[in-house]
Amino acid sequence: PAEPHLRTVREVCETLATTVREHNENEERVLFPLICEDAPCALFEEEHTALRELERRLEQALDGPHPERDIPPVAHALVDLLRAHIEREDEVLFPMARALLGEEGLARVGRML
User: Could you tell me if 77 and 54 are in contact, meaning their C-beta atoms sit under 8 angstroms apart?
Assistant: First the structure.
């Protein structure tokens, strides 16, 4: 039966709609305005938009007439993008933010979140 798997997909959708979206919105609201003159924020904003679109498509597939057929391609695209995005954050964005803002600036960002 597909029901246990569909429950897992619903849990993933909830995490995407809350935790992941909040993280991305915090970056856009607090971090990006401080570093975008010197950092490639446009790429990260584009990826945030693509992640929100894939989240929407995953929810549609979950609630559609053929979830077992429609979920896998969307889920794979979402996982691939999310993995690449997190890797770029860890290897590019966050090191640049540390270098540009310094300890004091990072502390200020932390207080704004």
Answer: yes
pLDDT above 70 covers what percent of the chain?
99
φ, ψ for residue 37, nearest 5 deg: -65, -30
Residue 48 vs residues 40, 65, 66, 100: alpha-carbon distances, Å: 13, 28, 27, 22
Please, what sign has the CA dihedral across residues 27, 101, 84, 42?
Answer: positive
Interatomic CA distance for residues 39 and 103, integer angstroms: 17
Angle at 69 between CA 61 and CA 80, to 5 degrees: 70
Tens digit of each residue's pLDDT (9 = 90 or more) over 59-75: 999 999 999 999 999 99
Torsion of CA 91, 92, 97, 98, to 10 degrees: 40
Q: What amino acid is encoded at 84 in this protein?
A: A
How large is the greatest C-alpha to C-alpha distance in the chain, in angstroms?
Answer: 53
pTM over 0.85: yes
